[in-house]
Write a structure and sequence with these properties.
CATH superfamily of one domain: Purple acid phosphatase-like, N-terminal
Helix content: 10-25%
Strand content: 15-25%
CATH topology of one domain: Immunoglobulin-like
CATH architecture of one domain: Sandwich
Low-confidence stretches: 1-45, 474-482, 484-610, 718-731
Number of helices: 13
Mean pLDDT: 78
Distance between the termini: 25 Å
Structural class: alpha+beta
CATH class of one domain: Mainly Beta
Radius of gyration: 30 Å
Largest sheet: 8 strands, mixed
Shape: globular
Number of strands: 31
Length: 755
Amino acid sequence: MKSEQLARALTRLTPRKAVVAGSIATAVALATLGGGIAYAAGGLNPPPVNPALVHVASAVPDRVILTPTETPFATQNVSWRTSVDVVNPQVQLASMTKGPVTASTTTAAASTTEFATDLGYRIKYHTATLTGLAADTSYLYRVGDGETWSEWFEFQTAAQTAEPFSFLVQGDAQNDVKSYASRSFRAAYEARPYSKAVVHLGDLIDTDVADAEWGEWFTAAGFENQYLNVIAAPGNHEYYPGPELTRYWSAQFEYPKNGPAQTDAVKQLFNENVYFTDIQGVRFITLNANMAYGAELDAQTSWLEQVLATNPSKWTVIAFHQPIFSVTSGRDNASIRTAWLPIFEKYNVDLVLAGHDHAYGRGNLFANEQNLPAGADPKTSQTGPVYMVTVAGPKMYVPDPLESNNWVTNGADLKSTNRDTQMYQTVDVVGDQLHVESHKVTGELFDAFTITKPAGGTKLVTDETVAWASGPGSARADIGAPERPTAVVPGGESTPEPTPTPEPTATPEPTATPEPTATPTPTATPEPTATPTPQPTTTPEPTATPEPTVTPTPQPTVTPTTEPTATPEPTTSPEPTSQPTGQPTTEPTAQPTAGPTTQPTTPGTELPTSPKPAANPSAIELSATGIAAGDSLSLKGSGFWPNEDLQITLHSDPIELGYPSADANGGYFYTAHIPAGVAPGAHKIIVRGLESGATASVDITILAPGSAATGVKDLANTGVQGVGIVIALAGAALLAGVIVMIVLYRRRRRAGGLA
């Protein structure tokens, strides 16, 4: 009976109807399958243009990048990408010239790495090391294969001795790099166009082998990568999904091979991701904070001490990804803090840079605010290392409350903090001073300080509120460093005579004497001109109060209140509270511990108020209640914000197990590896939403290595994703059925026609 019904249905099915039905079935199948894919990818829609068309390699060189050697005054690394068709990669080098290049030397690439990309095409990366260069000299170079060339780029070798120069700092770019992080990259380069280097603090991209993401990272930097030495530290996303460091790292970044090498295995593990280089009186040291436990951490720690003990440079800058003191809620990198903090303090390192937290924080140990030189204010001064965490990209996380943040609970003063703001840093090294500025991507100065280290004197770090006009150095011998346009220097600075009534009065003693504004001035100073501070510019300083010292001013509020300038009263509202003085304290407000925290989370006005509803995490489901150290464990749950980043941590060490993202419905399914070194016993796994701040936890028993798992449960990754795939398969089956019917229908017609 059923077969007869099917036959009648086929008889009534015309070709037109069959095609329509097939189209509908196809659309349903593709839509549901596509929905499943989009769901799995975090609910994002595919780009309007196929990334494979945008980023495919050709014979034309792209992704050209300079990286430092161990002797940047005499040698230079350059790497680039091409299609696999290029078989004769080379670099041409020429002396700096005011016109077209007429003579050059050619250097063949020393290495080539070829591999397949996730977009379906193969690529090659080439690297050459230029040698025999003159110190402190500008050159032109281009890369190609003898027939197809890039444009001519420029670079300048380092001086062999300590000379003034500038470098840039960029925190995590990670997501939407071309769309958003490009602003931070280019704003920094615009601020110091003659910088010799840029330091990247990890998580350059989001997915380790995504060729399109690496393509966007290079695009975002503009010509920066081709003109400056790029010093990069690996972040956890250079290992995601991993488990090894992305193959792109060694292919496109040629770094000194001077890292830990206690054994061949250690040497291979840290090759070109832990290293150091010396540039004009600054030793740059890059560490891998992803390797934060056991023998891997020990190998880095002993190497670090040796590199610091033999450091010939006046200044030391250390960069890695996960910070010593975390800004973001719930994070605590205890293992590296225990291992490295004592060493940083012992050798009085100058600047310790990190990313990872997608927020901004800067501070120092409370202990280093004691026993300061005469006249130094502990609210705005310190000795010892400066610790900084920063972010360049658009992804932002929730900082800890000031009274319980990871800095204060570990003896550190969080002097300046900011959230929901893309930032960049410029660093100027001039003689006995290392001057650091943190700017918002829109240009305003947010935080600044200067480290002074006189020969034979005491090192002192002092907060400032005035941006330097420009940095030292130029890549062109006959052009001096440009003067910064007034507009670029953040509003509250004193440089020009900003806004008619800026309290601080241009550069002279701006606010040096708290009251020289508005009211006090009139009577107080006999001659200042009746009208208080009209243009303090011209004559104001005379009157100034004796101690204008120009330096105190820095305190008017470093950047507090974001745009200090705003209303003439020094620092709008932030400082008033707590600082009777009017100028001290970089930006603090209440000084007890960490009180300084510039504008506790209100950097400019943008605080919490999240538009999203409160997250409500479900209980965590585990694939086993007991798991052996060294084995893997799956976790499943829901209730977080859609697509937010999650942090999975094993306590009580704590040990970071991974950073998955919630799906479009706030759910997650993740398989984590339990390190072999975890001590057997009762532990707890905590899943935290890095944007919502919501947490869920579950108890877990870690068993001795090699033990069989207990309480095993099948945690199939079911849910919308599974439903989407099932529907897609059903749609595909329906389509196949329709096709079969069409074929049968046509055969029937032919058979009928022949009869």
